[in-house]
Amino acid sequence: MDTFWNGDFAAVPTDFPRMLLGMLVAFLGGHVLAWVYMTTHSGLSYSRSFVNSLIVIPTVTSMVMMVLQNNLVTAFGLMAVFAIVRFRNILRDTLDTTYVLSVIVVGMACGTMKLTTAVVGCGLISLIMLYLWFSHFGTRHRYDVIVNMHWARPAAEMGELRQVLHRHSRKAQCASQRSHEGFEGTDLSYRILLRDPGRMDEMLSELRAFPGVSRVTGLLAEEESEV
């Protein structure tokens, strides 16, 4: 164990209790921000991988600062490596970017002979990644189905339609309402949390038979992870 804890051969020795404290506080801070993002996010575009990245990136960044430790040469080397990754590869998933950032920092730690820092940091980041995967953190289940339909009657008579939706659902939210110039009626899109998910076909059949409603389609939303 003495060999392990003295495995950093850099010019400045590493204070490992302080290192672990910094990375854990960064992890908790990212967790808080991720919870705030999940709570306050609105709209249809929601990415679970982005939420996970909000947790991992602060931890990786704290490790970056520990590797640099006011070392100007290492800082320029980090900028050069990031420039290569940025211009040679396009990563569409934010979590993929986080993995790339993680392996770069671990490689930098090894290259600057901060071997114990690399091992401890890699282990902690790996545990965070496994925790996010195992707990499905960032997954939201706020509705069961998206229902699209065309409403041909006056907008003042939509109350009858809402009664049908609320009879089958615990929550029905109108996500989109569009009227087209030169065409009668309105295209509606509802996000619905069903009282009984097994009776979705019954609700769709009742909507199709409702006067003034046409072009009824239902899209299951089992997991609001990437819309």
**What is the 3D shape?**
elongated
Largest sheet: 4 strands, antiparallel
Give the terminus-to-terminus CA distance: 48 Å
Structural category is alpha+beta
Domain unit count: 2
Structural overview:
The protein is of the alpha+beta class and about 230 residues long. It has two domains: about 1-135, no CATH class; about 145-220, ACT domain (Alpha-Beta Plaits, 2-Layer Sandwich), CATH 3.30.70. The chain is built from eight helices and four strands; from the N terminus they run H-H-H-H-H-H-E-H-E-E-H-E. It is elongated. The two termini are about 50 Å apart.
List the helices and strands and how they pair.
Elements: H1 2-5, H2 16-40, H3 48-68, H4 72-88, H5 94-111, H6 115-135, E1 145-151, H7 158-168, E2 169-178, E3 186-194, H8 200-208, E4 213-220
Antiparallel strand pairs: 1-3, 1-4, 2-3
Helix pairs in contact: 2-3, 2-6, 3-5, 3-6, 4-5, 5-6, 7-8
Give a quick summary of the entry.
The chain is α+β, with helices and mostly antiparallel strands and 227 residues long.
Which features characterize this protein?
single chain, 227 residues, alpha+beta, Alpha-Beta Plaits, 8 helices, 4 strands, 56% helix, disordered C terminus
